[in-house]
Specification:
With about 250 residues, the protein is an alpha/beta fold. Helices cover about 45% and strands about 10% of the residues. It has a 4-stranded parallel β-sheet with strand order 2-1-3-4, sandwiched between helices. Helix 2 packs across helix 6 (about 170-180) and helix 6 crosses helix 8 (about 220-245). The chain is globular, with a radius of gyration of 18 Å. The mean pLDDT is about 95.
Length: about 250
């Protein structure tokens, strides 16, 4: 069940059954020579919608733009400041809480969002504590689709040391599963990208000129994406169901 495709009476009826909602969150940033710029937002959205086909859960609109300043030297990348993203998350949580949602599960596809989302959660809980309230009714969680147990098993089997940490064959495969028309073969040198550290956007492009970090996305495939999708749906159902039981 998707919030954007529901009417308010349908949402009101849903809230009599559950106070949980999944909020996909990602980023709009370069993903190497053959990866879609929307990869980090598409991946959690694809999986969340797959979960909603299996269990009774509402999926909120995806937060498509995140914390990605280090990608800005590549055309098409868009970022929010940490303070802006914190404000967006706070406003979304407060809007959902006013309607009666209590278990809000942020389902993430971008590592650069993690610290900021956790800071947003801390702000929300701090407001309640500083007000002297008896206890927050809200349960907030951040889960990363790429860290699921089953997803990790499939990624290691298929890609081993070529997975890397950005523009990975796993995330690109997952987007190709949902959008096979986007699959493209691009020659890359070296096959496995280098690893290392960076400071800002210009430094990132100097160190990683094609955008990849430690990965070989030439190994990506639609079939691998199907397996990762199925694994992630199972991981997420298990984790979300446990979260609701808190």
């Amino acid at each position: 069940m998707r919030l954007q495709l529901s009417t308010w009476p349908e949402v009101e009826a849903y809230l009599t059954r559950s106070t949980g909602i999944i909020v996909p969150i990602g980023s709009t940033e370069q993903h190497g020579p053959n990866g879609l710029i929307g990869t980090d937002a598409l991946c959690p959205e694809i999986v969340a919608n797959g979960v909603a086909e299996r269990i009774d859960v509402l999926v909120a609109p995806t937060i498509n733009v995140g914390m990605a300043q280090h990608h800005l030297a590549f055309p098409g990348s868009i970022t929010l400041r940490p303070s802006t993203l914190i404000a967006v998350i706070r406003d979304m949580v407060q809007s959902l809480a006013r309607a009666g949602f209590r278990h809000i599960y942020f389902f993430n596809g971008h590592g650069g969002n993690v610290a900021t989302v956790q800071a947003a959660f801390a702000e929300i809980y701090a407001e309640n504590s500083l007000a002297g309230a008896p206890g927050s009714p809200l349960h907030l969680k951040l889960a990363n689709w790429y860290q699921g147990r089953r997803v990790g098993e499939v990624s290691r089997e298929l890609f081993a040391g070529d997975e890397g940490s950005h523009a990975t064959p796993s995330e690109i495969s997952l987007t190709w599963h949902a959008y096979p028309q986007a699959a493209k073969r691009v020659a890359m040198q070296p096959a496995r990208a280098p690893t290392g550290n960076f400071r800002d956007a210009e430094d990132y492009r100097r160190v990683f000129p094609d955008g990849r970090i430690g990965s070989n996305p030439m190994l990506a495939s639609v079939e691998a994406g199907r397996r990762l999708f199925e694994a992630s749906v199972e991981d997420t159902i298990e984790d979300y169901t446990a979260f609701l039981a808190r």
